[in-house]
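Hypothesis: this fold can be encoded by more than one sequence.
Test: take the C-alpha cells below, design a sequence, compare later.
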C-alpha cells in the first residue's frame, strides 16, 4: 500500500475493499452460518490494544487493506491502458525462448513493434525474446537489453535463462473453489461475524474460507486434498469432481442446498521455492525475474503478492537509471548526472538479486511459519494433518494402488478422516474444542494478520541478516514489531508532518521521497557537530533531485494524525473511535519522541540521509 501510495493509487485500491469490520478478524467456526454461539474463537487483529496493530498504525501512512486479486488486477490493467503512449500491451502471446547475444539474439529489429524508417536498430548487445501470438502460425521476437520476467511460477523465461529453483515442493495440496452466494451474506451476519478468513472445522470438513467480499457474496474455499484427489486437475466437466466441490461447499456453509454458483475450481500445490538468482547477464544483456517467477511462497500472510510488488519497486528505478544513462551516452546532450560507467551499471543491476533474494528467503521462512500456525488450531484438538498425510501415503503406495481402485482408496481415507473429525468436533466434544482453540488464539500461536517487522522493516544489505537468526521466536513480539532506524538499506521512517510555510496539509515523511526522480537528501536541523549541506548538494548535485530540511516541517501530534489516518482507512480504532490505549501521558511522550526523531533524522550521525527513489536509505 505504501508503494501504491507513491504511484498515486492508494485511494483507488482502498476503494475496492469491503468495510474493515468485514475483514479485520480471523474466525474459527463450526460453519459459516452457525452464528456467534457456534464459533470456537475470533482473533481480532486490528483492535487498538493489539501490539502489532498499534505498532503498524503508528509507523505507516498506508495501513493494510483486503482486496481480491481480480479487482486489483483490473484496476492496474486500466492504469496500464492509460499509458498507451509508453506501453505496447498485448494479449494472447506465449513466450517460447530467450536468446542472449552469444546465442544469436539481438540481430535485428523487433518484429511487431511500431517501427518507422528512422528507428535505430537495437544495440548489438540486446537479447531476444521469442514469442508466439496465438492467432499467428510463426513466431515473432523483440530485442532489448533488459527483459523482466513476471510470467508466474511456471516462467518459461526463467527456464530459458537456465535459472533453477530451490526449496520444498508440495507442502500440501488444496482444492481452491470460488463461489458466490447473495443468500449467504445475511446468514453470516457480517456486522457481528465479519472476517477475512473463516477456519471451518466440523465433522464433514476442515477448510479455510476466504471472504473476498461478504456483501457481494464472493468467497473462495481452500480445502486440503490428499491422494488420489490431489492428483485431480480440477476438471469441472468431471461429475465426480463437481460433486466433491459441491459437497465441500455444503459442509463449509453448514446449510446444504443453499443457492450459490461455483465459478471455478482447481487443485494447487503449496510450494516454498526460490530462484538461485533473480538476474542473468550476458554481454551486458539482462533477464530479471520478478514475482512468482523468482519465488513461490505459501499464501499464509499474503507475502507472495507483497514480495512481488516490492521486487518491481526495487528494480524499476535501477532500470530507469541504466536506461537514462544509455540514452545519454547515445546522444550528444550535456551529461545530466545519470551517466554510469560499465562497472557502476553492473553493480547497480546486480544489486537487484543481492537485495531482493535475501528478503524473499526471509518471507519464505515467515510464510512457512504462518502455514504451521494455521495448523495449530486443529492440531490442538487432536486433528493432526501429519496423521492424515501418513495414511494417504500408505494408501497411495504401489501395493495399495495395485490392489485398490482410486475411488475405494479415497473412500477409505475420507472415512478415517471423517471418523476423527466426528469424534473431536461433534456436539459432545464441542466445548472442549472451543476451549482449546481459544487457548491457541490467546497464546499468540495462531496465524497472525500483521507483520510490521517484515512489511515495512525489511533492510537491504548486511543489516537485514540479524532477523534471519533465532528460529521461530523472531516472528513473535517484540521481534515482530517494527522499530524505526536509519541504517543503509532500511526504509526511510514515517512520521506525520505539516509544512510550516504551506497550507497546513498533513503529509507523511514518505511523501517527500521522489519515486520519479533521483535521490533525496534529508538534512537535520542545525546542531552541534552537524554541518550544513554543501553548495553542490544545495544545487541538487549528481543524483540528487531534492534537498529537504527537517526545520521546514513540524510533526503533527498523533491524536490529530489519527483522525486523518482514520479518514483514509475507515477504521474506528484508528479514527479516534477506540483510542482507550492512547493514554494522554503516553501519547504526549510518543509525540515528543516523534518530534525528536524527525528533527535529528532518527539520530543520523552526519545529520544527513540520502534516500533512494524506492524509499530506502542509501
Amino acid at each position: 500500500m505504501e508503494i501504491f501510495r507513491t504511484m498515486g493509487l492508494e485511494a483507488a485500491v482502498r476503494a475496492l475493499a469491503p468495510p474493515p469490520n468485514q475483514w479485520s478478524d480471523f474466525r474459527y467456526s463450526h460453519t459459516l452460518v452457525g452464528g456467534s454461539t457456534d464459533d470456537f474463537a475470533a482473533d481480532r487483529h486490528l483492535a487498538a490494544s493489539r501490539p502489532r496493530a498499534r505498532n503498524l498504525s503508528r509507523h505507516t501512512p498506508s495501513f493494510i487493506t483486503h482486496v481480491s486479486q481480480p479487482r486489483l488486477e483490473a484496476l492496474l490493467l486500466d492504469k496500464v491502458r492509460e499509458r498507451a503512449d509508453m506501453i505496447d500491451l498485448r494479449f494472447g502471446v506465449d513466450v517460447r525462448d530467450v536468446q542472449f547475444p552469444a546465442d544469436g539474439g539481438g540481430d535485428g529489429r523487433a518484429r511487431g513493434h511500431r517501427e518507422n524508417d528512422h528507428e535505430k536498430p537495437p544495440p548489438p548487445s540486446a537479447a531476444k525474446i521469442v514469442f508466439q501470438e496465438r492467432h499467428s502460425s510463426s513466431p515473432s521476437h523483440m530485442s532489448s537489453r533488459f527483459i523482466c520476467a513476471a510470467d508466474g511460477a511456471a516462467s518459461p523465461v526463467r527456464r530459458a535463462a537456465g535459472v533453477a529453483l530451490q526449496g520444498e515442493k508440495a507442502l500440501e495440496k488444496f482444492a481452491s473453489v470460488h463461489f458466490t452466494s447473495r443468500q449467504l451474506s445475511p446468514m453470516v451476519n457480517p456486522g457481528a461475524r465479519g472476517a477475512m478468513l473463516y477456519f471451518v472445522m466440523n465433522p464433514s470438513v476442515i477448510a479455510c474460507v476466504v471472504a473476498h467480499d461478504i456483501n457481494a457474496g464472493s468467497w473462495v474455499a481452500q480445502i486440503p486434498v490428499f491422494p488420489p484427489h490431489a492428483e485431480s486437475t480440477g476438471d469441472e466437466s468431471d461429475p465426480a469432481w463437481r460433486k466433491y466441490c459441491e459437497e465441500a461447499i455444503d459442509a463449509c456453509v453448514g446449510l446444504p442446498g443453499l443457492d450459490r454458483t461455483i465459478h471455478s475450481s482447481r487443485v494447487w500445490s503449496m510450494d516454498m521455492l526460490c530462484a538461485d538468482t533473480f538476474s542473468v547477464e550476458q554481454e551486458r544483456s539482462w533477464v530479471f525475474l520478478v514475482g512468482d517467477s523468482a519465488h513461490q511462497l505459501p499464501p499464509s500472510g499474503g507475502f507472495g503478492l507483497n514480495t512481488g510488488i516490492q521486487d518491481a519497486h526495487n528494480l524499476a528505478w535501477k532500470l530507469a537509471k541504466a536506461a537514462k544513462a544509455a540514452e545519454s551516452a547515445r546522444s550528444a546532450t550535456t551529461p545530466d548526472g545519470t551517466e554510469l560507467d560499465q562497472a557502476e551499471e553492473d553493480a547497480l543491476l546486480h544489486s537487484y538479486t543481492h537485495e531482493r533474494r535475501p528478503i524473499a528467503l526471509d518471507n519464505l521462512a515467515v510464510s512457512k511459519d504462518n502455514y504451521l500456525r494455521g495448523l495449530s488450531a486443529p492440531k490442538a484438538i487432536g486433528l493432526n494433518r501429519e496423521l492424515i498425510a501418513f495414511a494417504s501415503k500408505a494408501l497411495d503406495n504401489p501395493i495399495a494402488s495395485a490392489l485398490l481402485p482410486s475411488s475405494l482408496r479415497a473412500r477409505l481415507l475420507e472415512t478415517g478422516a471423517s471418523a476423527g473429525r466426528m469424534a473431536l468436533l461433534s456436539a459432545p466434544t464441542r466445548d472442549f474444542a472451543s476451549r482449546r482453540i481459544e487457548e491457541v488464539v490467546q497464546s499468540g500461536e495462531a496465524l497472525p494478520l500483521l507483520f510490521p517487522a517484515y512489511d515495512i522493516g525489511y533492510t537491504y544489505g548486511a543489516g537485514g541478516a540479524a532477523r534471519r537468526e533465532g528460529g521461530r521466536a523472531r516472528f513473535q513480539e517484540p521481534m515482530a514489531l517494527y522499530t524505526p532506524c536509519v541504517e543503509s538499506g532500511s526504509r526511510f521512517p514515517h512520521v506525520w508532518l505539516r509544512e510550516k510555510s504551506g497550507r497546513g496539509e498533513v503529509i507523511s515523511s514518505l511523501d517527500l521521497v521522489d519515486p520519479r526522480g533521483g535521490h533525496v537528501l534529508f538534512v537535520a536541523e542545525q546542531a552541534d557537530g552537524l554541518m550544513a549541506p554543501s553548495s553542490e548538494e544545495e544545487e541538487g548535485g549528481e543524483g540528487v533531485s531534492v534537498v529537504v530540511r527537517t526545520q521546514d516541517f513540524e510533526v503533527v501530534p498523533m491524536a490529530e494524525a489519527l483522525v486523518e489516518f482514520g479518514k483514509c482507512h475507515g477504521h474506528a480504532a484508528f479514527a479516534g473511535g477506540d483510542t482507550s490505549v492512547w493514554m494522554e501521558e503516553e501519547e504526549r511522550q510518543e509525540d515528543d519522541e516523534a518530534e525528536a526523531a524527525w528533527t535529528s533524522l532518527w539520530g543520523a550521525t552526519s545529520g544527513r540521509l540520502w534516500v533512494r527513489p524506492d524509499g530506502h536509505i542509501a
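Residues 35 and 609 are 54 Å apart (CA to CA). The chain has 19 helices and 20 strands.
Hypothesis status: open.
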